[in-house]
Design goal:
It is built from five helices and 13 strands. The protein is of the alpha+beta class. InterPro entries: ADP-glucose_phosphorylase, GalP_UDPtransf1, GalP_Utransf_N, HIT-like_sf.
């Protein structure tokens, strides 16, 4: 529970270079900050194209795990309704656009879906750490394939779980979008990490202090509530080792990450009543220079959908969070999960 003496604070997120207002007066007790959603988990859905046996109703397959045979565990497929077109050649800037500094590029890119299980009611925290590790290794394989396209600069891996988090399908899946540009939030994050490195000579994520912010830890990773969390009960899972790219992950670390992610999601479900959530793998552009390697460091961000973004946030880029991260970390850390 939050201290009754807490006063509002304005904290700077030095990784993403933004300000967050912590306003405990706007919150109930953090322990009461639970999702009001009613998760629906049907045992089957005969017409779901992501279920085993329904592959003919799905978009074209890119690869599956195992690589051959009908009894797959993971499938990576094209998105049936892609945000970008893989059929367009990346031809650079389009001509004939309005003035005023406007820029338009052809909508070339890749939008893929990673089907995490062949069985409809099975969700990510239901899988064992090895199986979750296999999902991570599928991300890695697909990123390495996308690296072959010279015009692809950044790959965003993300998962939307629950309708209010943006999921249009209830079957457990995640997505990957490969872009011919580096998104501005990524550029801002890298510039902010570069600034910290210039001032200290150290990576901001390697140096992060997590004493009161720690939720759990494993051999290779820690889970924390970040010091300037943008959203209530936001969680970062950070590699203990310095690494610029998620796709540098090996099989042993993938299983370790799977174990910690499973524990984190289960704790979040218990404490917050199985909220809809998003997770994003926050990495670096595919091509980084040797001078960028010392300060670029990937992490996995989890955002439970417990609040809405309002006009103040949209207008300023400054967020209001009613839950101090120290309180969120303590509540999640103390959740007891049976093995």
């Amino acid at each position: 529970m939050a201290s009754p003496n807490r006063i509002p604070e304005i904290r700077k997120d030095t990784v993403n270079n933004r300000w967050v207002i912590f306003s405990p007066a706007r919150s109930r007790r953090p322990s009461d900050f639970k999702s009001k959603s009613n998760p629906v988990n049907p045992t089957s859905q005969p017409e779901c194209p992501f279920c085993i046996g329904q592959e003919h109703d799905c978009a074209p397959e890119i690869f599956r795990v195992p690589a051959a045979g009908p009894d797959w565990r993971i499938r990576v497929v094209q998105n049936l309704y892609p945000a970008l077109s893989r059929d367009l050649e990346s031809s650079g800037e389009l001509a004939g656009r309005p003035g005023g500094g406007s820029v338009a590029l052809s909508g070339f890119g890749f939008h893929d879906v990673v089907i995490e299980s062949p069985v409809h009611p099975v969700h990510l925290p239901d899988l064992d750490p090895v199986e979750i590790g296999d999902v991570f290794m599928a991300y890695k394989k697909r990123i390495e394939q996308l690296q072959c396209y010279d015009s692809i600069q950044y790959v965003q891996v993300f998962k939307n779980h629950g309708a209010s988090a943006g999921a249009s399908m209830s079957h457990s899946h995640s997505q990957m979008i490969a872009l011919p540009v580096v998104p501005p939030t990524v550029s801002t994050r890298l510039d902010s990490m570069k600034e910290y490195f210039g001032q200290t000579g150290k990576c901001s994520l390697c140096e992060i202090r997590f004493d009161t912010l720690l939720i759990d830890e494993s051999i290779h990773f820690i889970s924390i509530s970040p010091f300037a969390a943008t959203f209530p009960f936001e969680i970062w899972i950070i590699p203990r080792y310095h690494s610029s790219h998620f796709h540098e992950l090996d099989g042993v670390k993938a299983i370790d990450l799977g174990r910690l992610l499973k524990l984190t999601l289960r704790k979040m479900n218990v404490q917050l009543n199985s909220p809809p959530f998003n997770f994003m793998i926050q990495g670096s552009p595919l091509q980084v220079s040797p001078t960028q390697l010392p300060y670029t460091h990937w992490f996995l961000q989890i955002v439970p959908q417990l609040s809405v973004v309002g006009g103040f946030e949209m207008g300023t880029g400054c967020y209001i969070n009613p839950v101090f991260p120290e309180d969120a970390a303590k509540l999640l850390r103390e959740v007891s999960i049976s093995s």
